[in-house]
């Protein structure tokens, strides 16, 4: 991989921007059957939330992984991340009057929880080695 490409892959700005565009685009798509301001607002809300979650999730998993030991350390960090993310996404979309909340948050929640579980697994294995 070239140096410039590697720099992009390591860039938090690139990751946050990608999360905003990908998950904001998904939210707009999930709400496409509703009038224009509605699907656009859902996309902007989800984009902003996904950007924030992307920025914070890695650090949160690292801290949670330090707090828990043994088998609980394998399950608790991604579970906490799932619960906090689901509550934040549901609450903020409800406040923003997103009509298709379940469809809107399904993909972003799956992606963030999968990342949390896989990253936590790597940390958990490293602690045990």
Protein described:
With 129 residues, the chain is mostly helical. It has one domain (3-128). 88% of the residues lie in helices and 0% in strands. It has five helices and no strands. The protein has helices at residues 3-10, 12-30, 36-67, 70-95, 101-128. Helix 2 runs antiparallel to helix 5 (101-128) and helix 3 (36-67) runs parallel beside helix 5 (101-128). This is Transmembrane protein. Keywords: Membrane, Transmembrane, Transmembrane helix. The chain crosses the membrane at residues 40-60, 72-95, 101-124.
Compact summary:
The protein has 129 residues and is mainly α. Helices cover 88% and strands 0% of the residues. The chain has one domain.
How many helix segments? Answer: 5
Q: What would the principal axes of the Cα set say about the shape?
A: flat
Structural class: mainly alpha
Uncertain regions: pLDDT < 50 for 5+ in a row? none
What does the radius of gyration come to? 16 Å
Number of domains: 1
Q: Percent range for helical residues?
A: over 70%
What is the typical, i.e. mean, pLDDT? Answer: 93
Helix/strand order? HHHHH
Question: In angstroms, what separates the terminal alpha carbons?
Answer: 29 Å
What fraction of the residues are assigned to beta strands by DSSP?
under 5%
Largest beta-sheet characterization: none
Number of strands: 0
């Amino acid at each position: 991989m070239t140096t410039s490409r590697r720099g992009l892959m390591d860039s938090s700005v690139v990751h946050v921007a990608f999360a905003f565009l990908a998950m904001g685009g998904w939210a707009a798509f999930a709400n496409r059957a509703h009038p224009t301001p509605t699907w656009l607002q859902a996309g902007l809300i989800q984009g902003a939330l996904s950007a924030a979650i992307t920025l914070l999730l890695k650090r949160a998993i690292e801290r949670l992984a330090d707090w828990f030991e043994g088998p609980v350390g394998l399950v608790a960090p991604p579970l906490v991340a799932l619960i906090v993310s689901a509550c934040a996404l549901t609450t903020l979309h409800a406040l923003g009057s997103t009509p298709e909340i379940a469809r809107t948050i399904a993909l972003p929640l799956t992606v963030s929880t999968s990342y949390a579980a896989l990253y936590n697994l790597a940390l958990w294995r490293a602690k045990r080695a």
